[in-house]
Design brief:
The protein is mostly helical. It has two helices and no strands.
């Protein structure tokens, strides 16, 4: 086999490979063709997905705002509880002082 024959055989093999690839491409696109009804369904699903994402974002923003409000209320409640506990502690101490004062007066009198 000389160089010219080799080139011709290679060209024929490459051309046949090209034809087989083109035919396979044509077959695939023939069976996978998307119809107009399918495109409208895809557009509708895309729109619904977009609306669902917007609703999700709104829900996330609402819950973040609500969480901030509840955290603020919790902080205020904890501060009020601390103040009430301090007041109760002072009242107990004062009551104890009054008891001991009354006991001293009763013991002396």
């Amino acid at each position: 086999m000389n160089g010219t024959e080799m080139i011709i055989y290679t060209a024929i093999v490459l051309f046949l490979a090209f034809l087989m690839g083109w035919f396979a491409h044509w077959i695939v696109h023939r069976f996978v063709r998307v119809g107009q009804g399918d495109m409208s369904d895809l557009d509708q699903m895309a729109q619904q997905l977009h609306e669902a994402e917007e609703q999700r974002d709104q829900a996330v923003a609402y819950f973040q705002q609500r969480e901030a409000e509840i955290t603020n209320q919790l902080s205020q409640t904890e501060a009020e509880l601390g103040a009430a506990m301090d007041g109760l502690r002072e009242a107990r101490q004062e009551a104890e002082e009054l008891r001991s004062y009354i006991e001293r007066i009763n013991a002396a009198g």
